[in-house]
TrEMBL record:
It comes from Methylobacterium frigidaeris. This is NAD(FAD)-dependent dehydrogenase. Keywords: Oxidoreductase. InterPro entries: 2Fe-2S-bd_N, 2Fe-2S_ferredoxin-like_sf. GO terms for molecular function: iron-sulfur cluster binding; oxidoreductase activity. Pfam families: Fer2_4 (PF13510). It comes from the Bacteria.
Length: 96
């Protein structure tokens, strides 16, 4: 599965396991959730006002395009949230 983002440089630090729609994925400590997801997928979620998928836009907390749902019911802005071990992202199957 290829993602929308590509890591340009390896970063030190421990791996952070998390899941996307139940599929195991891995990020690095200190990665933002948007990067962690888009290294594996081409989108974050479905667009709620029409067809299509969304992958964030501003990457700085302003546009509100990157909200994602977690399995525990939380909704978080992926560009301002650090990935955490065991985080379970639910996209509804987008961006695969
Ligand atoms: S990408 Fe714009 S608020 Fe997250």
């Amino acid at each position: 599965m290829s993602g929308l983002f590509q890591r340009l440089a390896q970063r030190p630090g421990p791996a952070v396991p998390f899941t996307i729609d139940g599929v195991a994925a891995e990020a690095k400590a200190g990665d933002l959730l948007i990067g962690a997801i888009l290294l594996h997928r081409r989108a974050l979620r479905r667009f709620e006002f029409g067809p299509g998928e969304r992958a964030g836009w501003c990457l700085m907390g302003a546009c509100q395009d990157c909200w994602v749902t977690l399995a525990d019911g939380r909704r978080v802005r992926a560009c301002t949230t650090l990935v955490e071990p065991g985080m379970a992202v639910v996209t509804g199957g987008v961006g695969g």
